[in-house]
Amino acid sequence: MGQEKNLWNVPNILSGYRILALPVLFYTLFSNNSHLFIILLSANLVSDILDGFIARRFNMQTEFGARLDSVADIGTYICAFTGMFYFHFGFIQEHVFEFSLMMAMYIIPQLISLIKFRRSASLHLYSNKITGYIQGIFIFTFFNFGNYPPYFYFMIVFSSLAYLEELVCVLYLDELRSNAKTLVHVLKSPNNAS
Q1: Rounded to an integer, what distance in angstroms lies between the CA atom of residue 182 and that of residue 126?
Q2: Which residue, among 36, 18, 14, has the nearest Cα to 27 in the 3D structure?
């Protein structure tokens, strides 16, 4: 019962907002309203930073919140990538190898987690949280100011390494859990218990 009361907290409401904003984002995308798309996408990225900060700062982290945040993150990044594809297809073509590498590094641990645990990996490793900020900054600056190549390559490399850490954790764990922190924490935890 106490867990149910915790579901209606500010971080979960912000994650819920991001999920509810997804259809509107897609509408602005396919109605070719790039200005409104950028505004709403930026709002999603900022609310992503806020929900994580508030959850950690005020000890409002829950398993439900972690899953809700993951769904909102995936939806926001799908919208961002679709927007990049739709409005900046030449950039995608020019960097198809880099995007393919990063996407493969993201998808592999997710697929293994679905096979092994029957749900997506929402470990919320520190490296994944940092990756979210790095990718969010890239997306925000890309849509608002254009590409800055050094930051783009930094984002690709850091993201790929973070996804590699997640892959190793998913392979090692006997039971999936959120807020696993780091690979070191996972390796040190007895019997992989949370």
Answers
A1: 6
A2: 36
Instruction: Say yes or no: 44 and 83 in one domain.
Output: yes
Angle between the N-to-C axes of helices 34-57 and 63-87, in degrees from 0 to 180, rounded to the nearest 10: 160
The parent domain of residue 140 ranges over 89-194
- Residue 31 carries which DSSP code? T
d(CA 34, CA 86): 10
Tell me which amino acid residue 110 is.
Q
Q: Which residue has the tokens 């998913």?
A: 170
DSSP state of 181: B
For 39-81, what is each residue's pLDDT tens digit?
A: 999 999 999 888 888 988 898 888 788 888 888 988 998 999 9
Judge if 126 and 58 occupy the same domain.
no
Pseudo-torsion of CA 33, 16, 179, 130, nearest 10°? 20
Asked whether residue 81 falls in the same domain as residue 156, the answer is: no
Whether 79 and 131 share a structural domain? no
Residue 75 shares a structural domain with residue 109: no
pTM: 0.83
38 & 15 share domain: yes
Q: Note whether 166 and 181 are within 8 A (CB).
A: no
